[in-house]
Write a sequence for this structure.
């Protein structure tokens, strides 16, 4: 079908393989029927000369001969960031529609029209058509305003870009006919096209492809097909290939043991072990059979046919009773007494599709073993070697090792060449497994290695070579893809093809038979093309996806001048963006930006700060300001560029800040900064405006558990300390239009502007200053004030319990209010901005006492609290907090025997403020005198029956509902052996010997807050299926006043009586409003409901509970 001759640039493969040119020479003869069909069709009616439709079948116009020309050619491959090719696109759509209309009109010409003029003129028809027109206009006006601008170079978030124009036209073209590639009778042409696409991808990856008349001497040929996405491709490789292949030899031995018709071959049929030795099948132990090489396993049916004359049908009928697809894994493991579960080995930073696939296939995510990563986040092959040695020692089989060829979070390419070498090493020791390459992102980058068939200059590196700036490590690992047993590759990622279009390619096409109940015997192009839908775990699948991929491949070309050029530009742009991240904070007083991947100067054994600084300045002054041509002619710059950035385009980086010249060490505050930057440079709500984001990035979470020393090194480079997870930012640059005009600087400047604004917020919230404070008032003699803290404000980060005296007249006024409403909640707010540490020192404070009501608050008395004593005064800065929640829930217990109060110990963020006055404590044992004395200083009461670590973190969606009036729990009481001013962590550890035990019962007056305490405190989670960050980010985060004074308050009202935040305006409200506006015919844009600060993240502020006061949300 394609006349271009494809082969990799000259290389010396470390593994024996057939001549590399064979696969590409074969492509010159591959599937001539499609090209013949194309030539017989000629130029479609109405199609202009040089159109993508015509070019798809014209191999002479396929791609330019140099990458300089490719810049111009690429202009014809996309609609364009500004729809520059709109006229051309419309012209091709018109061709597609005209052929569609012609097809329908010419089919069964004897039939009359089914939709006649009478039907068209009816009112019902007109009404229905009017409804269609209204809704088309409705959606067509909304989608442009509320769809992510993937088409713009300003979008550099996920692995997304504008889809190519040929791929879009191909998808639209096939969509009009709705072919279903599950069976050839529903897709006679698109099934053949899918087969062809699979062969194109296999050839690009370096596999030996099929062709009519191909000599069997060349060995097994490759096969590939389209899946809906990479996750399904990974799952297929896991369950239907690696798992089924691993158990096939066991199934065969079981069949020989139990089926009389196969008994005659028992003493004659031998298998070749992975060590190279031969052994009779009946003499093999399960360990031997679990470790046959993949090639040996798929050759077994053919060998049985040749040696014993078995027909494929007979073998299939017999084996169908014993294969894992029939019996299940557990039955086979039980039959062969396999005690140790077979393992799957992947990098600890692997994509979430792998644990999901392990769960679905029955392998179990616990048997998906994470291999540690090195400082570059690549699979650590020394650690892998140790794991494999343990597998041999304990005779624990391995299904497969997965090499990630471009991670979604940082573009890292695992060392596939070393993994393959380790397989050879351990096969000699009796352990064999498959090697799968997850090249969902990286697979298409092999097109950078395929010579341009139209390049008369021949292969070889030049100034125009797309691999000129590719890291040598990455180039080497991409070359080794041809030796992987199976490869996932996503056309809808780096193939610029519309969703959904993933793909799975097999080095040996016989692997595909393991997906079904058939035997891996037949291997022919016709079988591969006509039965595409059989060999996969999907059922119905769109024929439009392979057509989109095929047309993209044909027009652009899977070589250096086509996709190689596009991805070479992505590599170059990615390196330039990395340079901006590495140099952005040079000489900046407050902002610190650090890329995840280290600079070359940082990788030395003893990196010098001076050398690193000099390298950063060289990058800023001599790389970021120069063109590709200028850099290509500078050997020093070229050598440095090849060592910069990630392995494949994706740049992870993080920001931090300096306070008074000192780098912030608090991981939580760095997470908050990065969360806010991400919030401002991404889309989260229907009401978000596209033009409010001048650049778009994505974010993820690096888990300390997954990244280990790699993440510790990154945090150290950021100036952070601690073992917390880290929120990072990510950019992916796929547009070919950025680098020619140095648009990277525009993007970097837009990012810097936002980052500098957010650093100002971080500085304000981390420099303590006098501020307004709020307290819960407890008791009457003495009066206790429980400070309402807030983790996100330097001035409010304090768990403080004070006691003091009021003037008698003021105390009586307060007591009168208490007598009138004894179960109410009373708050004290500072009259002036105060510094809590100063308050404790001077032992006096001016406060206003108010009673909370269902409609706000009622002032009781303004008074001066004197003779203040700090019962507890402990800082809540992250460095003083514990790394994990306590297994039991601890409270401070204080007051007098007549008035006992409790306050939950805040040991980790986020958390919940749980405080109650006038609780009842009944001692079962202990010294009452010692207990009374301890109450004055503050005891610690541990609730044994509440497992706090299982209940935290508390959020707006998960509240501490157990804390209700009347709650009765068993407690163990301890002296607080630390002073009132002692700081954590470990405040609830090693409490010593209990002084008493008993029960605690809550009274009617309790106060619960899981919102104000946690305002603007990111909740960083690292769980499958998706790493998640909850961003409760408010626009007024620069204020140091307690959130109570910023609108957060009970019953939707603040302390000052002004309306608080209305917690609505979510996507459902906005969408419903849009639908209503559509029905009224007034829609111009999605209505923007008032989306007050924090409304998306704090749907339930303070919760106040009492027997007489309703619960406020």
């Amino acid at each position: 079908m394609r006349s271009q001759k494809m082969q990799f640039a000259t290389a010396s493969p470390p593994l024996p393989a057939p001549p590399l040119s064979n696969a590409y020479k074969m492509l010159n003869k591959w599937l001539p029927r499609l090209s013949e069909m194309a030539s017989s069709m000629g130029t479609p009616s109405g199609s202009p000369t040089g159109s993508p439709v015509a070019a798809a079948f014209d191999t002479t116009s396929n791609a330019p001969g140099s990458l300089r020309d490719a810049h111009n050619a690429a202009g014809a491959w996309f609609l364009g960031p500004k729809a520059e090719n709109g006229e051309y696109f419309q012209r091709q759509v018109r061709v597609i529609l005209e052929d569609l209309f012609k097809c329908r009109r010419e089919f069964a010409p004897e039939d009359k029209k089914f939709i006649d003029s009478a039907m068209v003129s009816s009112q019902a028809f007109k009404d229905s058509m009017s409804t269609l027109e209204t809704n088309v206009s409705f959606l067509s006006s909304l989608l442009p305003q509320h769809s992510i601008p993937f088409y713009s170079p300003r979008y550099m978030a996920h692995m997304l870009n504008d889809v190519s124009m040929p791929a879009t036209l191909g998808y639209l073209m096939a969509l009009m006919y709705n072919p279903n590639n599950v069976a050839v009778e529903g897709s006679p042409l698109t099934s053949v096209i899918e087969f062809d696409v699979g062969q194109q991808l296999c050839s690009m990856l370096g596999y030996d492809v099929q062709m009519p008349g191909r000599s069997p001497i060349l060995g097994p040929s490759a096969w590939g097909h389209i899946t809906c996405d990479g996750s399904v491709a990974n799952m297929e490789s896991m369950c239907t290939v690696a798992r089924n292949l691993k158990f096939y030899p066991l199934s065969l031995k079981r069949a020989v043991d139990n089926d009389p018709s196969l008994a005659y071959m028992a003493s004659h049929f031998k298998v070749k072990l992975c060590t190279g030795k031969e052994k009779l099948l009946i003499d093999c132990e399960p360990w031997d059979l679990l470790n046959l090489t993949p090639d040996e396993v798929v050759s077994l049916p053919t060998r049985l046919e040749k040696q014993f004359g078995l027909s494929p049908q007979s073998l299939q009928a017999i084996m169908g009773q014993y294969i894992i697809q029939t019996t299940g894994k557990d039955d086979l493991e039980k039959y062969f007494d396999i005690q140790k579960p077979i393992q799957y080995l992947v990098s600890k930073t692997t994509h979430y599709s792998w644990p999901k696939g392990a769960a679905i296939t029955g392998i179990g995510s616990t048997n998906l073993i994470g291999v540690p990563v090195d400082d570059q986040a690549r699979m650590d092959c020394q650690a892998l070697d140790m794991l494999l040695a343990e597998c041999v020692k304990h005779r624990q089989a391995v299904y497969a090792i997965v090499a990630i060829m471009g991670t979604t979070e940082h573009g890292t390419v695992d060392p596939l060449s070393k993994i393959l070498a380790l397989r050879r090493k351990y096969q000699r020791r009796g352990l064999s497994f498959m090697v799968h390459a997850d090249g969902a992102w990286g697979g298409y980058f092999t097109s950078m290695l395929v010579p341009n068939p139209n390049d008369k200059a021949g292969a070889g590196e030049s100034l125009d070579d797309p691999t000129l700036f590719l890291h040598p490590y990455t180039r080497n690992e991409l070359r080794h893809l041809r030796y992987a047993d199976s490869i996932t590759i996503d056309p809808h990622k780096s193939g610029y093809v519309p969703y959904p279009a993933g793909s799975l390619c097999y080095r040996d096409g016989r692997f595909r038979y393991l997906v079904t109940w058939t035997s891996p015997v037949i291997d022919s192009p016709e079988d591969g093309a006509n039965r595409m839908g059989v060999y996969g775990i999907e059922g119905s699948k769109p024929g439009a996806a392979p057509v989109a991929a095929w047309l993209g491949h044909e027009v652009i070309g899977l070589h250096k001048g086509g996709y190689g050029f596009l991805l070479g530009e992505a590599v170059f742009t990615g390196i330039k963006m990395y340079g901006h991240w590495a140099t952005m904070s040079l000489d900046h007083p407050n902002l610190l930006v650090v890329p995840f991947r280290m600079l070359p100067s940082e990788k030395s054994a003893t990196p010098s700060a001076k050398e690193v600084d000099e390298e950063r300045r060289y990058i800023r002054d001599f790389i970021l300001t120069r063109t590709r041509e200028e850099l290509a002619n500078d050997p020093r710059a070229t050598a440095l560029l090849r060592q910069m950035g990630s392995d494949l385009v994706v740049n992870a980086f993080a920001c931090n800040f300096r306070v008074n010249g000192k780098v912030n060490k608090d991981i939580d505050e760095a997470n908050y900064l990065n969360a806010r930057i991400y919030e401002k440079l991404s889309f989260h709500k229907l009401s978000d405006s596209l033009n409010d984001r001048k650049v778009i990035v994505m974010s993820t979470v690096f888990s300390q558990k997954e990244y280990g020393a790699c993440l510790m090194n990154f945090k150290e480079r950021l100036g952070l300390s601690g073992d917390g997870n880290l929120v990072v930012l990510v950019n992916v640059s796929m547009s070919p239009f950025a680098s020619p005009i140095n648009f990277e600087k525009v993007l970097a400047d837009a990012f810097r502007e936002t980052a500098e604004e957010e650093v100002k917020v971080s500085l304000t919230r981390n420099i303590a200053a006098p501020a307004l404070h709020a307290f819960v008032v407890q008791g009457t003699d003495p009066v206790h004030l429980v400070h309402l803290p807030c983790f996100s404000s330097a001035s409010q980060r304090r768990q403080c319990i004070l006691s003091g005296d009021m003037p008698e007249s003021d105390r009586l006024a307060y007591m009168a209010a208490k007598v009138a409403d004894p179960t109410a909640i009373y708050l004290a707010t500072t009259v002036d901005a105060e510094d809590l540490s100063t308050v404790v020192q001077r032992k006096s404070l001016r406060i206003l006492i108010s009673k909370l009501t269902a409609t706000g608050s009622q002032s009781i008395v303004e008074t001066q609290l004197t003779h203040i004593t700090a019962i507890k005064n402990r800082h809540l800065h992250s460095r003083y907090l514990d790394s994990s929640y306590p297994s039991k829930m601890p409270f401070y217990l204080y007051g007098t025997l007549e008035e006992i109060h409790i306050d939950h110990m805040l040991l980790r963020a986020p958390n919940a403020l749980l405080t109650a006055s006038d609780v009842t404590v009944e001692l079962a044992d202990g010294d009452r005198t010692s207990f009374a004395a301890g109450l004055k200083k503050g005891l610690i009461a541990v609730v044994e029956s509440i497992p706090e670590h299982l209940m935290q973190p508390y959020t707006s969606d998960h509240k501490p509902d157990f804390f209700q009036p009347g709650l009765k729990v068993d407690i163990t009481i301890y002296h607080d052996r630390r002073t009132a001013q002692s700081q954590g962590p470990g405040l609830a550890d090693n409490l010593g010997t209990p002084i008493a035990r008993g029960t605690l019962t809550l009274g009617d007056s309790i106060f619960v807050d899981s919102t104000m305490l946690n305002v603007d405190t990111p909740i960083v989670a690292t769980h499958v299926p998706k790493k998640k960050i909850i961003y409760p980010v408010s626009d007024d985060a620069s204020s140091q006043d307690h959130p109570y004074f910023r609108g957060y308050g009970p019953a939707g009202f603040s302390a000052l009586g002004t309306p608080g935040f209305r917690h609505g305006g979510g996507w459902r409200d906005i969408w419903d409003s849009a639908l209503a506006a559509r029905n009224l015919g007034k829609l111009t844009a999605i209505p923007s409901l008032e989306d007050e600060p924090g409304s998306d993240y704090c749907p339930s502020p303070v919760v106040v509970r009492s027997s007489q006061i309703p619960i406020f949300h």
Observations:
- The mean pLDDT is 84.
- The radius of gyration is 34 Å.
- The longest helix spans residues 230-258.
- The first strand starts at residue 223 and ends at 227.
